[in-house]
Design brief:
The complex is a heterotrimer of chains A (about 375), B (about 300) and C (about 400).
Chain A lengths: L2 H14 L5 H22 L2 H26 L8 H20 L11 H22 L7 H21 L1 H4 L5 E2 L5 E2 L2 E2 L3 H24 L1 H11 L1 H6 L4 H27 L1 E2 L6 H14 L5 H17 L3 H5 L2 H17 L31
Antiparallel strand pairs in A: 1-4, 2-3
Helix pairs in contact in A: 1-9, 3-8, 3-11, 3-12, 3-13, 4-5, 4-6, 4-11, 5-11, 9-11, 12-13
Chain B lengths: L1 H31 L6 H16 L2 E4 L2 E4 L5 H24 L7 H23 L4 E2 L7 E2 L2 E2 L1 E4 L2 E4 H23 L1 H11 L1 H6 L4 H27 L1 E2 L5 H14 L4 H21 L3 H19 L14
Antiparallel strand pairs in B: 1-2, 3-8, 4-5, 6-7
Chain C lengths: L1 H25 L5 H10 L12 E7 L6 H20 L8 E7 L4 H13 L3 E5 L4 H14 L3 E3 L14 E3 L4 H16 L3 E7 L2 H16 L3 E8 L7 H10 L3 E5 L2 H13 L5 E4 L6 H7 L7 E4 L8 H13 L7 H20 L4 H10 L3 E3 L2 E3 L12 E6 L2 E4 L7
Parallel strand pairs in C: 1-2, 1-3, 3-4, 4-5, 6-7, 6-8, 8-9, 9-10
Antiparallel strand pairs in C: 10-13, 11-12, 13-14
Classes of the chains: A mainly alpha (about 375), B mainly alpha (about 300), C alpha/beta (about 400).
Chain lengths: ~375, ~300, ~400
């Protein structure tokens, strides 16, 4: 890659990093880590640990989708399909094949759980690249509808291919993870496992988006034609974005299976894809911390609302409030809570890609 | 042969309903390029308000409330007016502030609106299904009046739906193509800034589009309710999605395209269900596969796009 | 500048999360089960004020696509709570419940389960309604020892979940065989078609019905599937019409049932209809209108029965819900609460473990949905009733299954 290319991309990358001083950012990240690690000791509540375990799943899902939507600018309404692929991968392999077909005790192959977390991701990544291929030519809403279609197809197959997935009965008996005899069987232990996975995922994603790959993604988002002209192989990078996003979803799907010990088509409804997309936009697209924050706030708020007697008597109030929250947040912070000021997923014809220097807006 | 005729008829009738929903959907869609997730909910309110106008008492917030008990042909227009007012209010509150924001922000705002409206209707009307009263001229002794055309059974009400759909499609198309406001709409869809410079009041044009689009949604809701005899808070989600698909299939913002897209979608669903192996299991999957193939060969929809230029 | 803003936002979030955490702490004790067992020891004497409240968790889909079932579930539980309260509570304890909306979704069900588990006052869970939700939440209850009684989760896998998991509905296998026999022997139809909901219950029941019907020498000429929430069924019905069955068996839930039968009438299909217990609701009759007249529906709860317990429940329901007839979801939710109340009174204490043990040993409980006797898996066997749609309501059908 010629040097010239690098220098052109560098301002973008710098802007992406969010400006601000890195020292402050590091301090914040450190403080959050300490907070997350000590939280179980402060909380002493299995309910909230369970919630945060699920929150971490969504943190990773939202961050993975952020690669596709936020960084590469591809509107994906079917992201949860890859979550389903990962979940069904491990369920089918562990329960349907290893246990039922080969008759192997699952305790004796505990290492397979860890392997499947990765393999589930890999399978989903491959699926992402394959399903992404026909969408390469499409933009905007045509892309949205294709991805939505893939989601529905995968969900319908999961619900109807009874021989493989047991259809609507779901697959139960997926083993809990354990490592050298240490079982992950309490809310407390699962919390740390999920936290670990979330931290690793966020770290990997933040590295990725700051690498040359990430810069290529951003270039595609900002102006695909220009990116192509600059020598970026847009198709390859788009597929890479689908595959990377798919990987994280697949891993989390496998984790969900081992966490619930159960996989069911209703885990992967269309509404899930829409929810995850909302989390991405809510937190702030094109920003590594944004989707994570979106997931934490949204899910915590949803769970917290359960406690009000009024909400229990009128369950629909919860949905009404959440709807109002979404609209209000979007109206007042259209770029999300941590909106990166560089992002504008413009697909309107003729609107100039804003060549705005970072000092101009906001601040 | 008889089965084929019936299945074609089924597909045509289902397609007409989809087309009617899609025609309203695509108007709004063409001008603000927003996947309007709340459209399905406006449709649902159209059904509920039609019912409310037709019955003598209805339960609102858990309390019985006396209602006028009007005829279907008066109730639906009232629902259209009410829903148009809702639509324009929603536009003002949730979409207009986001006119210049990233497109996804508007999409999420629409999703938020959709979630709110669905739950709000549950608060008002309850979570049980509500019966959509029979329309006297289309029924006889509680059963739908039907006739046989070329070996296929079809009800009078369905024929009425076809008639309304065609009229709505033609009227809207003429409106958009021939009137001043329609021209302003097309101009705004192309380029809002330039249109504004040319003296088009873009906000007003968009508000009018929302009024018409929402009223069409309510009309579709009223007819859908009459055909299937029910209303329920979550009933709008799938029709809204189908309308979106039909609109994209036909070419975004293209009114005859949406009509055609709806018909094609209805046909695909009906015929896939009937003639493909395990059709009733994989109906929606087949529909999406065909959709994906169609979009692969015609990436900008069946009739390209005349109102907006996107792809 | 930006750094500062980000910092501020993050701090607010952290504080919010912390506040929520504290709120979570406030309403739950960490020593969940231990606390509960300790307190119950001294409270079996009915000294008012000291009594352990009889509080339960009510889990089901309260919003979203399946909200209608959750509403019936809640309504039935409300009647039970009122009845027990007027009697002076259970073991002197005040009767109340916490409602948990699981949307019929496994992940949400786990969250609801954990909330109930953490609340030491909750003695048992009335729910979850769907098999998917039950299979995900069940292991959590089993682990901690909180009894869970599902009114409606029919998946056979649930039997294997453990000692704290019960249900008062029959598995699909039992109902499917019973209905196949009824179709063939009592009604005398040999050539039938099946239309079923693609969910766990609809498909499972359709499978067992079909297998039993074929095994007994019947002929299944059509088998079509639909999805919950569908409104258009004509493509499937046209196919079925071609095969000319004598009876169409519907396996699923009532919201779709009325539309299926109506559209069949529009297509000129005139057959006998038999619906599974998911169709047993007045909603089928009121929404189906003239088309569903004469449709047979299997149910465990027939509100037209003159059994005093049924009459009492139906009267209370009429009084509370403006004359509406209860469906079987409501009746099952009522049965669960009343049965556990009986068990708690037999055990003499409002305590999770004691209740669970008594459920296993109490023998037969005469509920309004039939006599409930648990087998070793926590499943039940009940007699099937058939009702018929008559004048917009459900009445006892003239032909009942021979026992």
């Amino acid at each position: 890659m010629p040097d010239q290319f690098k220098t052109k991309m560098n301002p973008l990358a710098a802007a992406l990093a969010g400006g601000g001083s890195t020292a402050v950012q590091r301090a914040i990240i450190g403080a959050l880590l300490v907070f997350a690690v000590t939280l179980p000791f402060m909380l002493q509540s299995n309910r909230w640990l369970t919630l945060f375990t699920i929150v971490f799943i969504y943190v990773v899902l939202a961050s993975g989708l952020n690669i596709v939507v936020g960084f590469t600018g591809l509107l994906d309404l079917g992201y949860v399909a890859f979550y389903a692929i990962g979940g069904y991968f491990t369920a089918v392999v562990m329960v349907q094949v290893v246990r039922n077909k080969w008759g192997i005790e699952l305790d004796s192959v505990w290492w397979m759980v860890w392997m499947n977390l990765l393999l589930g991701g890999v399978v989903a990544a491959i699926a992402g690249a394959i399903l992404g291929y026909p969408t390469l030519r499409l933009r905007g809403d045509y892309l949205a509808i294709m991805t939505l279609g893939f989601h529905e197809i995968i969900r319908i197959v999961a619900n109807n291919w009874v021989g493989l997935t047991r259809g609507p009965s779901g697959i139960s008996g997926i083993p809990k993870p354990s490592i050298f005899g240490f079982d992950f069987n309490t809310a407390f232990r699962f919390y740390y496992l999920a936290l670990f996975m979330a931290i690793v995922s966020l770290f990997v994603i933040s590295r990725m988006v700051r690498s040359r790959i990430g810069r290529a993604w951003t270039a595609i988002r900002e102006d695909e034609v220009a990116a192509e002209a600059m020598g970026i192989h847009t198709s390859r990078y788009k597929l890479l974005a689908y595959a990377s996003g798919g990987f994280f979803a697949g891993t989390m799907g496998a984790f969900l299976g081992h966490y619930l010990n159960f996989i069911h088509p209703s885990n992967f409804k269309l509404m899930e894809s829409i929810t995850v997309l909302s989390l991405v936009v809510l937190g702030g697209m094109g920003n590594v911390a944004g989707p994570a924050l979106g997931a934490i706030i949204w899910m915590t708020l949803l769970e917290w609302l359960r406690d009000f007697e009024f909400v229990q008597d009128h369950p629909e109030v919860r949905g009404m409030l959440m709807g109002i929250v979404l609209v209000t947040l979007m109206v007042f912070r259209p770029k999300g809570l941590l909106g990166s000021r560089r992002v504008s997923l413009e697909m309107k014809p003729g609107s100039p890609a804003p060549p705005v220097p970072k000092e101009v807006q906001g601040g | 042969m008889e089965q084929l005729a019936q299945q074609l008829m089924n597909g045509l009738m289902l397609g007409c309903l989809y087309a009617l929903i899609a025609v309203g959907y695509t108007m709004v869609y063409g001008i603000i390029e927003l996947i309007n997730f709340a459209f399905g909910e406006l449709f649902m309110f159209g059904t509920f308000i039609s019912i409310a106008m037709m019955v003598d008492t209805i339960t609102l917030f858990g309390r019985p409330v006396p209602m006028p008990g009007l005829s279907f042909f008066l109730a639906v227009p009232i629902a259209m007016v009410a829903v148009a007012a809702m639509g324009v209010t929603i536009e003002r509150l949730a979409y207009r502030p986001l006119r210049n924001a990233p497109r996804l922000a508007a999409l999420i705002s629409a999703i938020g609106m959709s979630i709110f409206l669905m739950n709000f209707s549950q608060a008002i009307f309850g979570s049980k299904q509500v019966f959509f009263p029979d329309v006297p001229i289309f029924t006889e002794a509680g059963l739908a009046k039907s006739l046989t055309i070329g070996g296929a059974q079809v009800t009078y009400l369905q024929l009425f739906v076809v008639f309304i759909t065609v009229v709505a499609m033609v009227a809207l198309n003429l409106f958009v193509q021939r009137t001043r406001v329609g021209r302003a709409m097309r101009a705004s869809a192309q380029d809002k800034q330039t249109s504004a410079l040319m003296g088009v009041n873009v906000n007003r044009v968009i508000a009018i589009t929302f009024i018409i689009g929402s009223a069409m949604g309510a009309l579709a809701g009223g007819l859908y309710g009459a055909v299937y005899h029910f209303a329920r808070p979550d009933m709008g989600f799938f029709p809204g999605l189908k309308a979106f698909i039909a609109a994209v299939l036909g070419g975004i913002g293209n009114i005859p395209g949406a009509f055609l897209g709806g018909l094609v979608l209805g046909m695909i669903e009906s015929l896939a269900s009937a003639y493909l192996p395990m059709g009733s299991q994989y109906r929606d999957a087949f529909a999406f596969v065909i959709l994906i193939l169609l979009l692969s060969f015609k990436p900008s929809g069946l009739l390209g796009s005349t109102v907006s230029e996107k792809a | 500048m930006k750094g500062f803003r980000v910092l501020a936002v993050l701090l607010v979030v952290a504080l919010a999360a912390f506040a929520v955490g504290l709120a979570g702490c406030g309403d739950s004790t960490t020593t969940t089960t231990a606390g509960a067992t300790e307190t119950t020891a001294g409270t079996t004497e009915t000294t008012a004020g000291m009594a352990v409240p009889f509080k339960f968790g009510l889990a089901g889909p309260m919003t979203g696509q399946y909200a209608t079932y959750g509403a019936s579930h809640t309504a039935g539980a409300d009647i039970a709570v009122e009845e027990l309260s007027t009697k002076g509570g259970v073991n002197g304890g005040e009767v109340s419940y916490e409602s948990g909306d699981d949307l019929g979704d496994p992940k949400e069900a786990v969250l609801v389960a954990q909330k109930f588990i953490d609340d030491a006052e909750i003695l048992f869970v009335n729910g979850h309604m769907f098999s998917g939700a039950t299979l995900a939440a069940g292991p959590k209850y089993e682990e901690i020892g909180l009894p869970m009684i599902s009114p409606s989760a029919t998946n056979p896998d649930i039997s294997a979940l453990g000692d704290f998991i019960w249900r008062i509905c029959m598995t699909d296998a039992v109902q499917g065989e019973g209905l196949a026999k009824y179709t063939l022997e009592d009604l005398g139809f040999k050539k039938i078609a099946i239309m079923y909901d693609d969910g766990d219950y609809g498909r499972g029941l359709a499978d067992t019905y079909e297998a039993a019907f074929k095994a007994a020498g019947g002929e299944v000429v059509g088998r079509e599937q639909y999805t919950a929430g569908d409104a258009e069924f004509k493509a499937q019905l046209t196919k079925i019409k071609q095969a000319a069955p004598e009876l169409i068996f519907l396996s699923g839930y009532y919201p779709e049932g009325s539309k299926i039968v109506q559209q069949a009438a529009e297509l000129g299909i005139t057959v006998t209809w038999l619906g599974s217990d998911g169709y047993a609701s007045d909603e089928l009759a009121t929404l189906g209108g003239a088309a569903v007249e004469g449709m047979l529906v299997s149910t465990f709860f027939d509100y037209s029965k003159t059994d005093p317990a049924v009459v009492k429940f139906v009267d209370a329901y009429h009084a509370k819900f403006a004359g509406a007839n209860p469906d079987w979801f409501a009746a099952s939710a009522y049965d669960v609460v009343m049965m556990v109340a009986t068990a708690a009174e037999m055990a003499g204490s409002n305590d999770r473990a004691a209740i669970n043990e008594t459920l296993g040993t109490m023998g037969t409980y005469e509920g309004i949905t039939g006599a409930i006797t648990f087998d070793e898996n926590g499943d039940v066997l009940k007699p099937l009733n058939i009702v018929i749609v008559k004048d917009g309501a459900l009445a006892t059908a003239p032909v009942q299954p021979a026992m």
